[in-house]
From TrEMBL:
CDD domains: GH20_chitobiase-like. The keyword Hydrolase applies. It comes from the Bacteria. This is beta-N-acetylhexosaminidase. GO terms for molecular function: beta-N-acetylhexosaminidase activity. Keywords: Glycosidase, Hydrolase. InterPro entries: Beta_hexosaminidase_sua/sub, GH, Glyco_hydro_20_cat, Hex-like_dom2, HEX_bac_N. Its EC number is 3.2.1.52. It catalyses: Hydrolysis of terminal non-reducing N-acetyl-D-hexosamine residues in N-acetyl-beta-D-hexosaminides.
Amino acid sequence: MKCIFTTTMIFLTLHLMGQQSELAIIPQPLSIDVNDGYYSLSEYSTIAIQSDIDLSFEVANLNKQIKRAIGTNLKLVKDGTETENQIVLKCTQGNGDSEDYSLSIDDKQIIISATDRTGLFYGIQTLSQIVDNAGDGHKTVRIPCVIIDDKPRFKYRALMLDPARHFLPVDDVKKYIDVMAMYKFNHLHLHLSDDQGWRVEIEKYPLLNTISSFRRETDGDGKPHYGYYTKAELKELVAYANQRFITIVPELDVPGHSVAALSAYPEYTCFPKMLKVRTIPGVSKDLFCAGNDSTFLFLRDLISEMVEVFPSERFHLGGDEAPLDHWKECSKCQSKIKEKGLGDEHGLMSYFFDEVNQILIDYNKRPLFWYELDVPKYPKGSTMYAWRGGLTSQVISKTRHEGFSLICSPGEHAYFDYPQAKGEETCDWMAYLPLRQVYKFDPGYGLSPNKQAHIIGVEATLWGEYVKNIDRAFYMTWPRAFALVEAGWSEMENRSWESFQKRLYPQLERLQKLNVKYRNPTELGKP
Ligand code: TNX
């Protein structure tokens, strides 16, 4: 019997066949074609490579995951020395999208093929889920015969960590990356500067790593908060992520959310005074001064040191929540508005972004911004984040007309600092964002293909005001990130909440094996 399944039929039919838990894959692949029979994976299986490129990391990653299920690593053999009982990794290096892959399992062998190492890695992640789900602690694991063809809906699938609010040591960020990679996330956005902390080593301005990286006052837990990443650590982190096909996107949030940096170098504010690294959440009126030309020289220096460690072509410049009060009162800002014919402080914001973007252009980088509706003009070639709750459809259409690319991270589906269940409130103003609400996310908002063609992906933002360590980060991220990545990877017609819930439990068991402290979605009940 051979059947071709698409859409929600996949779950229903597999359920009837009693195989649904064996193929509980997240994110849901594009097509799954289940056949009769099983492949027996055991210590006698081998791995063979059909490629000229070095796939030693991919082989090690596959072996690490297989070992969890069968207790042993598989031998790597030269392709062609055996024809049966193999897992063949084929990297054709032809044309095609780098993330696409196919996975074919019959009773004799498993073949993962892709045109690029990225697709191959994703095929390995899918196979590992199937193996883990079928593994029952015995030395042989029977996995169902299947043909999977897969490709992502969106090219940008990201999570954001906010070590600015609470520093997260580099080894913890690596653990976070490990889990992201297992579920086909491909960008980690690091929010590295904010009012409450500066987290990147900058050699030219050492006070950034003493004054700005240190929050003397407690924030209710009786401890000071401090930390920054050295350049060597960041380079290592970037390489670590890169090996797992994850790009780290740095953020330098300007002109607002900058009190930590300005507390060390107040000469770049409109009204230099004693500023302290902010100890409470919220929005400050202290911005970088747009009327002071030396502000841009300072930012140029910061960016020039940051790009040394972050090769990402995209660089986030923040741009959110910058109250204009000080720019209104500042004589330098007012003269700049007159001199450049900018109209008012909103025009000055566009000027500020153009000036900083010029620095990025010099380094061959493209800017990302938190999109603010009242900024009259953003630099050409920018990518925007739709983040304000409730306004997303307006942002989608406005950015399309303005010619910008868009990443969707709306509050109502993607703010992972919001509590997951009633009774888990961290502070009173936050909305409640349960798993199901994340799952409802359609990044295209049901718009016609041409109206959503400029959307490049999704991101969940884990703002860190109340996320003080990596275990809390894991708790707030998983399982909601399963729902988010499915919104970014899977076509809407292949998604359903009923199917997702069933596929979720085997994944939670995997996280448990990996000692990831996810939140148990008790409100859903067991399947
Ligand atoms: C708004 S969303 C912010 C962050 C806060 C977050 C808390 C955005 C671009 N800015 O500074 O951490 O709300 O949810």
